[in-house]
Amino acid sequence: MTNIDKEAMTEIIEDYEEGGRDDSGYVVMDVREKNEIEGTGKVSPNTHTLPLSIIQQQSVFEMDDDDFEIYCGFPKPTPDETLVFTCAAGIRSQHACQYAAQGGFTKLVNYKGGAYDWFTGN
């Protein structure tokens, strides 16, 4: 798992928004609860919402592709994509990386600043 700061996250988001999943190789997931995201907005328009509570309860990264897409609402990441997780302050996103690793994913990025850093600039 790689921990990144706001500057690195900004570069990932720019690549992700410009090229989408296919060209950038990134899947950006916000693991906050839906009501938290509604309060601040998403870090980028194409960020997927996948609350840590769902990741924990359902072991989503161990599901097959069809079940993942039905349950999570977007195509399951492939092993060659880089999974980028963000939350409020970098704690839940770190846990999400650990769950993804248990599911066999190896390209994992944790935005350690989270929404507090992203939206306030502190």
UniProtKB/TrEMBL annotation:
Q: The Rhodanese domain covers which part of the protein?
A: 22-120
Q: InterPro entries under this entry?
A: Rhodanese-like_dom, Rhodanese-like_dom_sf
The record, for PROSITE patterns, names: RHODANESE_3
Q: Which Gene Ontology cellular component terms are annotated?
A: mitochondrion
One Gene Ontology MF term: thiosulfate-cyanide sulfurtransferase activity
* Origin: domain of life: Eukaryota
What is the designated name of this protein? Answer: Rhodanese domain-containing protein
Native organism taxonomy: Eukaryota, Sar, Stramenopiles, Ochrophyta, Bacillariophyta
